[in-house]
Amino acid sequence: MNRLKKYIISNLSTLFLSIFMPLFAVASVIFLIKLAAYTAVIHLTIWEMTKLFIFVIPELLFYTLPIAFFLAATLSLFKLSNDNEVVVLFSLGIKPSYLVKILFKPAFLLAIVLILDFFVIFPHVKVLAGNFISYKKSEAKFNLSASEFGNSFGDWLLYLGKKNEDGTFGKVFLFNKKKKEEILIGAKNAELINDAGILQLKLRDGQGYSYSTDKFTQINFETMLINDTLSTHLTPYRSTLDYWRSDERAKQKKRMFITDALLSIFPLISLFLIVSLGVVHARHQKSYIYLFLFLSVALYYGAILLLQDKLSFYTIPTVAFAWFVLTYLLYRRTIVKRF
Does the first or last residue of the chain, that is N or C, have fewer Cβ atoms within 10 Å of its Cβ? Predict the structure, then answer.
């Protein structure tokens, strides 16, 4: 029995890796395309892009692991069926329930990993990624391009004549138009300073002009500091429970919790369906396994999306119980009766 178990697990592992790696690669490419869109808004180094990718790895794993396991487990049994190895096993007196027992342990461990992933790791990395993006936006480096109009710094329109080798800027002009007053500032040099997430523009050797319908004012200065009014908004992270119970984006987090909870247990409650689809008689049955795999995943996802707004958190036990019962009845009818 141990050799049989190792043989089935070996086939499952090989197919799992061959399915998981392409799925993960495709999901990674989609994220990298999304990440490339960020670079049009904020300045990101290669290390910062790598850091953002690391933040999203738990999410990529969560949405690829259960699907990869479901497909790999079903196709591994289907391969054994086509090679007539499953029929031989049943002829030797081994019951179909033994296949369910073999798959139960990896499915159970995967479900535990997925639950910890979405419930514990998700909140932490999402807060880290959100704060990181917010911090990078507060730097406003994406706005500061030399010899281009359209730069902005808080409420100011900003023009930079050139960028020096030391990172400072030369020939700087700022303009701010209010309801009753317009302000124009010119400086020979400017330096961008990030003080704990609050951006400052340090101007040197310049003049400032303020004019309205009533008066005109001019000042000369050696140094002037202008603060960006758009400071960084960082989300505090206290604990996992605080994240899920907070009122911030409550509706979105509720849907995510329902969906992710059901996706976490999908491999575990689909064991009977895996055996039902994977075990066939090669000579007497015409299998549409790929169609059935697609329909199974689509039906499960569709049930989650359809019921979560109507049943709220009751969607979790309703879908889980209904899916388990229906797949078990299918298993009894297609596998137990036949083999």
Answer: N
Using pLDDT thresholds of 50, 70 and 90, give the confidence band for residue 269.
very high
Closest CA to 324 of 264, 261, 266: 266
Q: Are 173 and 184 in contact (CB under 8 A)?
A: yes
Q: Can you tell me the distance from the alpha carbon of 290 to that of 99, in angstroms, rounded to the nearest whole number?
A: 20
- Cβ proximity of 60 and 114 under 8 Å: no
Edge to edge, the sheet with strand 169-177 lists 151-153, 156-163, 169-177, 182-195, 198-211, 216-227
Pairwise CA distance, residues 78 & 84, whole Å: 10
Nearest-5° Cα angle at 45, 201 to 249: 80
The count of residues in the chain is: 339
Given a contact cutoff of 8 angstroms between Cβ atoms, the answer to whether 90 and 77 are in contact is: no
Nearest to 271 by CA among 232, 226, 324, 208: 324
Q: CA 90, 336, 285, 91: dihedral to nearest 10 degrees?
A: 10
Give the model's confidence band at 285: pLDDT under 50 very low, under 70 low, under 90 confident, else very high: low
**Among the listed residues 107, 125, 127, the one whose alpha carbon sits nearest the alpha carbon of residue 233:** 127
pLDDT at 1 over 70: no
For the chain, the average pLDDT equals: 83
Picking from 108, 103, 113, the residue whose alpha carbon sits closest to that of residue 64 is 113
Task: Take residue 69 and report the two structure tokens written for it.
Answer: 């396991």
User: Tens digit of pLDDT for each residue in 17-33?
Assistant: 999 999 999 988 888 88
Taking 60 as the threshold, does the pLDDT of residue 197 lie above it? no
Task: Dig out the tokens for 162 from the structure.
Answer: 């050139």
15 C-beta neighbours (distance < 10 Å), count: 21
Count of beta carbons in the 10 Å neighbourhood of residue 111 = 19
pLDDT of residue 262: 94
